[in-house]
């Protein structure tokens, strides 16, 4: 909770904080965010490259500092495994094409 207050400020309306693995998932004013320890800066070069190629199928980075990065949280949809596999194949083919 202390980390969330440091990143979003004391006046933010924190509704929920859940620890999942090494991440914190927090709900602030009806929006969910993922807070992760920053591992390396090279990933942002990859994000910039993919964005320049109009490949937008990854979570958006909301904010970052020296220690943490904040990303949007994407809810998992309950879909059959066959459909998930088909969607994964489509995404990989788009990534290969771009």
Can you give a write-up of this model?
With 98 residues, the chain is α+β, with helices and mostly antiparallel strands. It is built from 3 helices and 5 strands, in the order αβββαββα. β1 and β2 form a beta hairpin. The mean pLDDT is 86.
Attribute tags:
alpha+beta; 98 residues
Q: How confident is the prediction overall: mean pLDDT? A: 86
Report on the biggest sheet. Answer: 5 strands, antiparallel
Helix content: 25-40%
Amino- and carboxy-terminal Cα gap = 40 Å
Order of helices and strands: HEEEHEEH
Please indicate the percent range of residues in DSSP E strands (runs of 2 or more). Answer: 25-35%
> Regions with pLDDT < 50 over 5+ consecutive residues?
none
Shape: globular
Radius of gyration: 16 Å
The class by helix and strand makeup works out as alpha+beta
Helical region count?
A: 3
Strand sequence of the main sheet, in spatial order? 1-2-3-5-4
Number of strands: 5
SSE map:
Layout lengths: L1 H7 L5 E7 L2 E6 L2 E7 L4 H11 L8 E4 L3 E5 L8 H17 L1
Antiparallel strand pairs: 1-2, 2-3, 3-5, 4-5
Short account of what is shown:
The chain has 98 residues and is α+β, with helices and mostly antiparallel strands. It is 36% helix and 30% strand.
């Amino acid at each position: 909770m202390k980390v969330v207050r440091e990143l979003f400020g004391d006046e933010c309306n924190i509704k929920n904080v859940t620890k999942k693995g090494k991440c914190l998932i927090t709900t602030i004013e009806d929006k969910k965010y993922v807070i992760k320890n920053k591992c390396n800066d090279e990933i942002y070069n990859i994000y910039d490259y993919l964005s320049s190629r109009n490949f937008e199928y990854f979570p958006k980075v909301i904010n970052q500092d020296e220690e943490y990065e904040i990303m949007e949280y994407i809810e998992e949809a309950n879909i059959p495994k066959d459909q998930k596999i088909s969607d994964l194949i489509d995404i990989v083919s788009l990534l290969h094409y771009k």
